[in-house]
Amino acid sequence: MFEMKDEYRLGLVSIDEQHTKLFELGDQAYKLLKDRYSIDKYDKIVEIIKELGAYAATHFKDEEEYMESIRYRKLFSQKVQHEEFIKAVEAVNFNKIDDNQDEYIMEILNFIAKWLTEHIIKEDLLITKNN
């Protein structure tokens, strides 16, 4: 379900590879949702959320460093959006996960899908087009 498509590519190898990894994390969540054999998915959900937060932080740092190096004029607004993403991941209520694990995985999927596609298309692609 989650895959890095050509229309999301910036043409910057390292950033495109990092975006691909973020899509892979979304795909892990999707596969977990569809896994009918795992009854208790709590630990795997927590693992995906923690990995998503850690990897996104690394990605954002690298992306922001690149934007700084080219003196990208929308760097500040990008930083704000990146911080909002990190705050949303950090605000996850791990107690809520156990109430309805599949519903929570759907929330994660919707969050990742919306954020990644909208952010890449509306913001990140401008990095290489409007410099």
From TrEMBL:
Sequence ranges assigned to domain Hemerythrin-like in this UniProt record: 14-125
Keywords, in A-Z order: Iron, Metal-binding
InterPro entries assigned to the protein according to its UniProt record, in alphabetical order: Hemerythrin (IPR050669), Hemerythrin-like (IPR012312), Hemerythrin-like_sf (IPR035938), Hemerythrin_metal-bd (IPR012827)
Family: Belongs to the hemerythrin family.
Protein name as annotated: Bacteriohemerythrin
One Pfam family cited in the UniProt record for this chain: Hemerythrin
Organism: Clostridium magnum DSM 2767
Gene Ontology MF, one: metal ion binding
